[in-house]
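During the second half of the funding period, the structural biology subgroup turned its attention to how the target accommodates small molecules. The most pressing case was protoporphyrin IX containing FE, which had performed well in the primary screen but for which no bound structure existed. We therefore specified the complex as follows and requested a full 3D prediction, including the ligand pose.
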Amino acid sequence: MDAAACLDRTLDLVTQRVGDPAPLVFARLFAEAPDLQALFCNDASGAVRGEMFLRALECLQDAAGARQFGAGLVAAEHLRHQGYGVDATQFQRFFTLVVEVFRTALGPDWTAETDQAWARALRQVAAQPGTA
Ligand code: HEM
């Protein structure tokens, strides 16, 4: 299985196990950095958080596969997020949190191949200009 297919398989399994993983990602983010919660005060419906999660996921998927738009998207969002007061470490951490939530959801079904595919995607995203 190639890396992109491996990521797709993870997503299928995660959805089967926990449904929409976005709330778990944000719960983890706010548990480790409670001050960040205030940044989402205008997002009562959760629509912005949902969109943010999907975009971050797309960046990881693109990094693992076609590498068509992810670098540009990451750079643009990184710049925009500096305006929200989100620093580079916090921005990058979100990608890692997404993968950590998936790993927890899969438990023993998180294989070495899966781990490698996501680790590579994370490295790729971290190596993109503007994220250092
Ligand atoms: C801990 C890290 C991050 C924090 C604290 C953060 C914070 C925010 C905030 C405050 C907003 C605007 C909320 C609003 O308009 O009410 C936002 C929107 C957004 N964020 Fe993040 N962000 C983080 C990481 C990321 C990452 C890694 C991506 C990847 C692409 C991303 C993509 C987006 C997108 C696409 C939106 C706009 C969603 C929309 O308006 O529909 N964010 N983020």
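Two results from this model are relevant to the next phase. The pocket of protoporphyrin IX containing FE is lined by residues 29, 36, 39-40, 42-43, 48, 51-52, 55-56, 59, 73, 77, 81, 84, 86, 90-91, 93-95 (CB under 6 Å). The first helix runs from residue 3 to 18.
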